[in-house]
Amino acid sequence: MGSWHNIFRYRSMRYTSFLLTVLLPVLQVLHSCSPSAPGIFGKKTPHEQYGQKLTNAGLRETTLGRSWFSRAEESLRSPLPISVPYKETGFFSSERPEAAGFLFEGTRGERLQISLDKKPVQGFSIYMDLWELTEADSTRPKWIASSDTSNKTLEYDIKKKGNYLLRIQPELLSEGEYTLSILSGPSLAFPVPAARGRVGSLWGDNRDGGGRKHEGIDIFAAFRSPVIAATDGVVTAVNTNNLGGKVVWLNTRDANYTLYYAHLDEQIATPGQVVKKGDTLGLIGNTGNARNTPPHLHFGIYTTGGPIDPLPFVKPRVSKLVNITAPLNRLGKQVRSTGRITKLQEEPEAKSKNDSSIAIHTLLNVQAATGQFYKVSLPNGERGYIAENAVTGIDKPVQQFQLIRALPLLSQPLQNAPRKAVLKEGTKVDVLGSFGGFQLIRNANGETGWIGAR
Question: What domains can you pick out in the chain, each with its CATH number?
Fold first, then answer.
């Protein structure tokens, strides 16, 4: 997996026998118990249930256990911003705990569709958790949905416009490749199937010379085209009024809002009728104050707080996932930057004021690929996105030289990092990359590590 993993193996050498003889059997027992079994841990999420099992088994205070919990929290504190739709393929190593956090915007009425495909399918367990960042305290996200390791999909209807956070994290000692896809689309069916997408007047448009605002959207279609129930529910009223003409009110079954269908030529539904999504409620017309306009449906959504924009609830999805073209053979490996000044972006495919620059030959660990970018981490833990054509592998050295004096071979690019060895004067080394005034080198025996100023 590259020299990064070799460094980690060295640091973990004294711990490895403990993992194999003590931790691994315990984790196998934990994995054999369903983390989502009802009633064992009350209302805890599957991720919390698994964490509780680690605690009960005495693993929370181990080095590996502390790291797993720490990464879970860090992914919530410092998620990387993305734009939906989003797709990435990444790699989780069993050698050290990891987690990934994704921050994105959501609009009320949209339905999030999150899927996670894994390789291998068996023995590689990942938890997905969805959080909402509240206006009251954006530092403490509110949990709203989860998917356990047996379910590779998660759907959620957004109740409030704002920022949302997704975390994915594998169980201890789980290793494999994953592909994460995040899409958003309408949470309701389009109410006029024959006119899908033909919205001619939007929420908030002026009406009566600016005397009032449009409290819905107008969907134009052929006269007497069917109008359908956009979701399951109960018809609460079928009546007539001056503005809407012939109207139907549908109370949704699982949501706290009511759908309003107006300007119908004919009402087919009856008061108190229980309907399924797709059932015909009426036929397109131009009754009420629409008598001088082409036939259309006025579609509205009303809550206890008043009307809201219905377009996000029914707007057909037009965005598509971007194909991943960055080579996947570098997942979980180290690379180095090739340009004199290379951009480490906060978001893929977009420039941000928080983008930073890294120097040539900077060492990076590839965590995932998305579009033409790699999601990478620096040796100090900083994360971001870099164009795949701005990096290269570290197999071929940047330069070669002989040490003019003895130097310690460090496990990390830090002055106080543990020593792996002491390199003698005259040792020939290959320079593989650099970071923060340190160089990653490889000696004639294939051993890797960091050295400071020569």
Answer: 30-186 (2.60.120.380), 193-205+214-310 (2.70.70.10), 328-393 (2.30.30.40), 399-451 (2.30.30.40)
